[in-house]
Amino acid sequence: MTQQPPSQSPQPPEDVASHTVPLWQEQAQYPGYSPAFPQAPAESRPAAQTLPEAESSRSARTRRLAELAAVAVVAAALAGASTYGLARNDNASSAAAPTPLSMATSPAPVRQANPAAPNWAVTAGVVSPSVVSISVTGSSGSGQGSGVVYDAKGHILTNNHVVTGGGTGSQLTVTLNDDRTYGATVVGTDPSTDLAVINLTNAPRDLKPIALGDANLIKVGDPVMAVGNPLGLAGTVTTGIVSALNRPVTTSDASDVPQSADPVVTNAIQTSAAINPGNSGGALVNASGQLIGINSAIASLGSSGGSSSQSGSIGIGFAIPVNEARLIASQLITSGTATHPYLGVSAKDGVVTDGSAKRAAAVLATVVSGTPADQAGLKAGDAVVAVDGNPIDGSLSLVAQIHEFTVGDTVALTVVRNGQPRNVNVTLIAKAATTP
């Protein structure tokens, strides 16, 4: 299957990342391998533990408090640090301001003794059973990708370009981490977000759904692990950090996205964890074993002579935040389709004056009559520089930020009109299927 490189982003962050490609892997080029089961190293004391282990956790906390009781100042300091760590790994901080698509997280299956130096062997052992390999065979070719076990009913969350990569009438085969293989059917696809849900045929009762995290809690520099099926090497884990957040990334693939369709624009998590073709649809998790993103694209160095071959990992990969993926997955499971928020504008990249400096912005080219943007008073020529306080540096950034919200949300746009900034509140509606 031939992959066409996507068009160059208007404002790439750097030359090396000027192209992104979906992580679809042509199956014929690489043999399949059995999943690798990571083993925790022998240590005098564990660097992490899996949950639930309520009695062990309580005993450990009791011993810790007894040891610290002799030194009150040190005890207070450590108690504060411990409380922060638990909030950071397990739940959203109660003091955190509401953010787009914030949601309750699943209990963290791993509690790291030292979050700054995670025991990745423990995390891999917990997460790997929740990640599957997907093989697709169809009229347009065959290939491999990855997916995550979304629930105990057999729903698998993956990328749209994995599911549709084989063309119409493709056959899907899903291999679990323990080498059991099942057929699967498509529940629903959403090309505009490059997400899809499939369902195992006669799903086993011992499936292990992945723990869902909250992408709004992660920070640049946080350690992460990618789990998937790169180059047919099932059960592969790689580690790195969150390199950037809110990175507007656009990808397209002629094999599964109609030329008339909107481009796939993601407000992506950028990571240094090595991901390669075949990692599509796989998991990006935090050290606590919670899903924070669905791996979907890698940066490409581009090519000369029109070659469409994909490069391997160059340390720049992108994942769809779990909050958006979770919203789309729930809609696909319920109805087979997904709705998307609609603002009602077209925009182009531009620059506006900001005090004595200048800054990039999304300059509105048109405002469609009767849409939320029109009703809020937006006009052609307005330059959008922020959405709910998140900076906007171009048209793709605006699209990606709007995708982060849900239908019915009211968002605050910061716009510059005639050199003067102003805030405009806009309530988003559902985008009609026929809306261009």
What features would you describe in this structure?
The structure is a single chain. This protein is an alpha+beta fold and 436 residues long. It has 2 domains: 1-338, Thrombin, subunit H; 341-430, Pdz3 Domain (Roll). 17% of the residues lie in helices and 35% in strands. A 6-stranded antiparallel β-barrel has the order 12-13-14-17-16-15. The model is unreliable at 1-18, 27-46, 51-99, 253-260 and 303-309 (pLDDT under 50).
Q: From the 3D coordinates, which CATH architecture of the largest domain would you assign?
A: Beta Barrel
Low-confidence stretches: 1-18, 27-46, 51-99, 253-260, 303-309
Strand % is 35-45%
Distance between the termini: 29 Å
Question: What is the third-level CATH name, the topology of the largest domain?
Answer: Thrombin, subunit H
Q: What is the arithmetic mean of pLDDT?
A: 77
Radius of gyration using CA atoms only: 23 Å
Instruction: Count the DSSP helices.
Output: 7
CATH top level label of the largest domain: Mainly Beta
Category from helices, strands and their pairing: alpha+beta
Any idea what the shape is?
A: globular
Number of strands: 25
Strand order, main sheet: write it out: 12-13-14-17-16-15
Helix content: 10-25%
The profile of the biggest β sheet is: 6 strands, antiparallel, barrel
Count of discrete structural domains: 2
